[in-house]
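[job 0412] stage=fold_complex status=start
inputs:
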Amino acid sequence: MTKLLFQDDSYLRTFEAYIIEIIDDHVVLNQTAFAYMGGGLQSDSGFIKTQSGDKYEMLESYFKGGKVLHKLSQVPKESLLNEKVTCTLDWEKRYKQMRLHTALHSLSGLLFNKYGSTVTGGNITPEKSRVDFEIDHLRQERVEEIVSEINKILVGDHPVSISYMNRDDALKIPDLIRTKVNLIPESVKTIRIVEIKGVDMQADGGVHIANTKEIGEFVSLKSENRGKNNKRLYFTVKP
Ligand SMILES: [Zn+2]
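[job 0412] stage=fold_complex status=done
writing structure:
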């Protein structure tokens, strides 16, 4: 089982690990800070360097068959099994995704607290984020209001904390019920909680920044009406 370093420290950009399995052009590491694809976020990418100086591009990581697979640009040498490697993330890509991700959670808190609106989906790329939510209308004046309100929240000092809670306790917390903690498979007994102080609380496995102040300015790109109660907003964040 690979230790998920990124779940406890989203700011880890370089780390050492051992290659514990090689499957064609994929490797499994004993621990990884390469966040894998999921939760609406794209996978990290970066480099894996061997002790003899060989450098492999790490194209994407994903979770499959109970393993975190790291896809490399070429099939690695068999002799690398059990070898120690040094791994480096594409930090620019990761950091942008962290900022967009925490912005998305902050927006989710705002939409619920101000409009009683529930987020039903979302997707993040390093360039922009998409969020779907249930609300009666999303006319221009409301988009402007949301942008203004979310920017007030983001410049405030809201630390983001990660904690763990057992499933039974998590199922009793209103914010977690609202964000459908009950949909997490029952086999998961410990729930990872991401709390943006005073703004939002969700069960979540992804990478986040440490404080909303780091996000920058929230900018709306486009809004779409996708049905009676289903609206979509594309946004990005600027430094
Ligand atoms: Zn999330």
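[job 0412] summary: The radius of gyration is 19 Å.
[job 0412] exit 0
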